[in-house]
Amino acid sequence: MEASDLDLAEPPEDPVLEEWRELRARVERQRDRADRMRALADQLQHRAAEGERLLEEMESLLGVSAQLALETLTEELRGRRLLEVATRLLAAELEPGEAIHYRDWYERLCQRGHRVSGRDPLANFLAHISKAPEVEGVGSRTGLYRLAS
Questions:
Q1: Where does the pLDDT of residue 25 fall: very low under 50, low under 70, confident under 90, or very high at 90 and above?
Q2: CATH (residue range 74-147)
Q3: Per residue in 114-139, pLDDT tens?
Q4: Is-contact 96 115, C-beta < 8 A?
Q5: Measured between alpha carbons, how far is 142 from 128 in angstroms, rounded to an integer?
Q6: Considering only CA atoms, which of 21, 1, 17 is closest in space to residue 9?
Q7: Between β-strands 115-116 and 76-77, what pairing exists: parallel, antiparallel or unpaired?
Q8: CB-count burial class (<10 Å; 0-12, 13-18, 19+) for 85
């Protein structure tokens, strides 16, 4: 056998080399799988965080959260909370479409233990309800209001 015959012949398969190839392919598959699982875990973590934020908001609205919303820490009503309480009171006490003078409405609110914030609480109350989309004025400069239909 000549030297040129050895160059043309296939080298004998090395078992260590074959095992190395198999191991390298397995490691690559495992890395790919780990990357996919990590991406899935990140996606699930993001969805869970969004769900937790929604739960906290709902719990705050329902008044069952462990940490109360800032507007519930004070007895004085202001802003959106003032409108929520005032319109809920009106809906509970008046017939649909029935009007009430803002002073009477304010008195009813106070009689139920609520306080409106501000230097002039009555003026603050009027300013909030007169601009609220949930409320509409009745007539021109009458001081009468009702829940919007």
A1: very high
A2: 1.10.10
A3: 899 889 999 999 998 888 888 889 88
A4: no
A5: 17
A6: 1
A7: parallel
A8: middle
